[in-house]
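Question (not urgent): is this output format expected?
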Amino acid sequence: MLTFVVTTVVFVGCNFFLHFRMEGSYWLLALVTLIGSYSMIAMGLVISARITSEELAGGLLNVLSWPMMALSGVFFSLDGAPAAVVWASKLFPLTHLLGAARAIMLDGADLASAAVATPLLVLVACSVLFTLLGAIGFRWTQD
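Got this back:
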């Protein structure tokens, strides 16, 4: 919930000062953000479930987050990228979160739209998969 609240505060602040273009539903954007945030937190749980050192877990999460940000389309478009790079970008939940958020904000897409429904289903599947893997891998004590 903290991630969702911080994201909401940043969005509202940026919208107030920068006047974002918003064609779609704020509620749908909030839903996509909530599920996408949970998916990325669950992905972090998979990494940190078996790591005994906080420093190592932080380092591994950084190693995972940089390719995710570089390949998700946060910094630049992947329209002209090779097919292998586009395929690799689809492995990360951030790519699907950004695709759905852009469709809602820029195109006014609704939940019935494939541009929102498909990424949302992928985010839900990632959330369930990462939560299950993290729960299976978690141990209270070192083995």
